[in-house]
Amino acid sequence: WWNLTVKRLHLSSPLTFAPFLSCQNVIRILREKAFDQAPVTNESGEILGMVTLESILSSMQEGKVKLSDPVSMVLCKDFNQVYLTDNLGKLSCILNRHNFALLVHDHTKYEADGSVCPRQRVFGVVSAIDLLNFITTHEGQDQPQS
């Protein structure tokens, strides 16, 4: 499995949040969907950062935010990214040190004024359980028959 690509994980579509959504609503939605984290994107889909239950909790404990404050106040901007073409070995190394990685895809956006803007789109959030489920489900399937 180590050399297979991240694309083989077949992740579900990501849950994303708008930056102006309140921390209280984000907590409620994350609980309902059984997620610990999700990307926050602007109207054009640009990745602004990640929100985690941990980041909300620590910011609330430190008195930096209230439940009514926008989620943009608790964004984690230091997160790892992987691409569909990266191998699962690289992902495994990231997940040994971090709780999740953001699966992204680069694309080019042409503006009305003729300018070209490189952009990234969120394809999903991958965690250790996603990788573990893949490995245990596919163990031995990709080995040549003897």
What can you see in these coordinates?
- This is CBS domain-containing protein.
- Pfam families: CBS.
- With 146 residues, this protein is α+β, with helices and mostly antiparallel strands.
- The protein has helices spanning 23-33, 53-61, 88-97, 128-138, and strands spanning 37-41, 47-52, 81-83, 100-110, 116-127.
- It is built from four helices and five strands, in the order αββαβαββα.
- The radius of gyration is 17 Å and the shape is globular.
In helices, the fraction of residues equals 25-40%
SS class: alpha+beta
Overall mean pLDDT: 90
Catalogue the unreliable spans: none
- What is the rounded distance between the termini? 18 Å
Name the helix and strand elements from N-terminus to C-terminus, one letter apiece: HEEHEHEEH
**Strand content range:** 25-35%
Q: Report the radius of gyration as a whole number of Å.
A: 17 Å
How does the overall form come out from the CA principal axes? globular
Pfam families: CBS (PF00571)
Organism: Xenoophorus captivus
Protein name: CBS domain-containing protein
Keywords: CBS domain
